[in-house]
Amino acid sequence: MKLALIDYGSGNIHSVSRAISHAASQADIALSLQLTDDPEKIYQADRIVLPGVGHFADCYQSLSSIDGLVPALSEAVISRAVPFLGICVGMQLLADCGREGGEETASLGWIGGVVDRLPSRSADGRDWKIPHMGWNSLNLWQPEHEMLSELEQGTRTYFVHSYYYQQLPKEYLLASTDYSDEIPAIIGKDNIIATQFHPEKSQHAGQKFLNSFLRWQR
Question: What is d(CA 131, CA 133) in angstroms, rounded to the nearest whole number?
Fold first, then answer.
């Protein structure tokens, strides 16, 4: 199996690489993992992972500034239906746009929605520390989904973010967590799966999720 881990200058890519390699070893999967920004290697991959940490606009600018990368990514994921995993900002880039820093930045637009700042006060008047950083429980909305088969209601995963996915069509919400608002934690559409939490930091639960991604057949 050839897996392209997209290296576009954003994200703790080496931690993600180690976690995926460990998951492949656990699942006894012969994996060729490439850290790459080469459009041809991305197009030819059997699995694609897009990590991301930092400012939404900076991440999208870095991604789109690499000649041919976004078209190759779109051709592989949308046209050829290659299984795709987005992590943290890699998930947020699936939205129509992001509103970080008060400016609107257009993005991939593969799953409708916008990315905006987490509220520091919830509807019930409680104050919340931003960024959201730490372990939170998952509420599984579609536990029958193949990618959630190894997870249980209340599974705890690790989050680090100040912005979140909003206006997501409900059919694409697979799991959420509660922190100042209901936060989409796992979203999915066809061959696309993405997490707001960090599987590579989520210990056993993260490893199980990555195992499922490597076995996922679409």
Answer: 6
Find the catalytic residue in 55, 132, 161, 198: 198
Name the catalytic one among 59, 97, 161, 200: 200
Whole-number Å distance between alpha carbons of 134 and 160: 7
Identify whether 143 is preceded by a cis peptide bond (ω within 30 of 0).
no
Rounded to whole angstroms, the Cα distance separating 14 from 11 reads: 9
Q: pLDDT at position 102, please?
A: 80
Instruction: Name the catalytic one among 55, 59, 88, 132.
Output: 88
Average pLDDT over residues 91-112: 93
- For residue 115 the two structure tokens come to 């990315």
| 146 in catalytic set | no
Walk me through the domains of the chain, giving residue ranges and CATH numbers.
Answer: 2-215 (3.40.50.880)
Known catalytic residue at 161: no
User: What does pTM read for this prediction?
Assistant: 0.96
Distance of CA 26 to the CA centre of its chain: 22
Amino acid 100: pLDDT: 85
Does the pLDDT at position 11 exceed 80? no
Q: Is 55 a catalytic residue?
A: no
- Tokens at residue 186, please? 């796992």
